[in-house]
Here is the input.
Amino acid sequence: MTTDFDTDRMKTRLKQLILEHAFQFSEQAAFKLVSGGTSQFYFNCKKVTLDPEGQVLIGNLIFQAVQDLAVQAVGGLTLGADPMACAVAYTSWVRQQPIQSFVVRKKAKEHGTASLIEGKVQPGDRVVVVDDVVTTGGSTLQAIAACREARLEVVRVVVLVDRQELNGRENILKEVPDVVALVTRDEIMSLYGSR
Here is the structure.
């Protein structure tokens, strides 16, 4: 399952896992969002990003999306990005093309170095920011800002699911002109409708 040849099969299986374990739909806008709004769609992707099979799929798919960028690290805002970044780091080691993972804290530690970012990254490193679900783009933008404050160069954003609501992708594109979504809400709805 780790060869480039299997990309389509891995993406198909990832969509199935998201549909089965991370997605809910309601005819009414029943799900409250972090932004305060409501939606017909709900994604709890931690049920996939923390799953062993999910990590293999995500690690390989994101690695394939970043391997030609000459990046030193991949990471994002805790908690959504953490298992994704670690899956990529593991996959990169297995593929003999190591990429570090890093974590962006939601707020700086009040002790020690008071750093917002944990991991083996240093100023000037080229990095990819990852996130599990994008709605408004708020958590992704927070991670991008922390990376820039640490003088890291954000060259791409990779999200697991683009909810295609509230201009999330568009908001991120204003800051980083290269955004890749492994899966979109429309793809999941298409599978949902064909069940």
Remarks:
- Helices lie at 7-21, 46-49, 52-66, 82-94, 138-149, 168-173, 185-193.
- The longest helix spans residues 7-21.
- Residues 49 and 55 are 6 Å apart (CA to CA).
- Strands lie at 23-25, 31-32, 38-39, 41-43, 73-77, 100-104, 117-119, 126-134, 153-162, 179-184.
